[in-house]
Amino acid sequence: MPATVTVPVAVAVPVPTGRRGLVVFSLWGTARGGRCQGQAALRAVAFGAPVTAPAPGAWGVSMNTTRTTPPPSTPTHSLTAHELALEAAGTAVALALGLPAPLKSLADQLIRSASSVPANLAEGAGRAGRDRQHHWRIAYASALEADSHLRLLLGAGTVDRAAAQRALELFDRVRALTWRLIHPRR
Question: Is the alpha carbon torsion for 109, 114, 116, 119 positive or negative?
Answer without folding.
Answer: negative
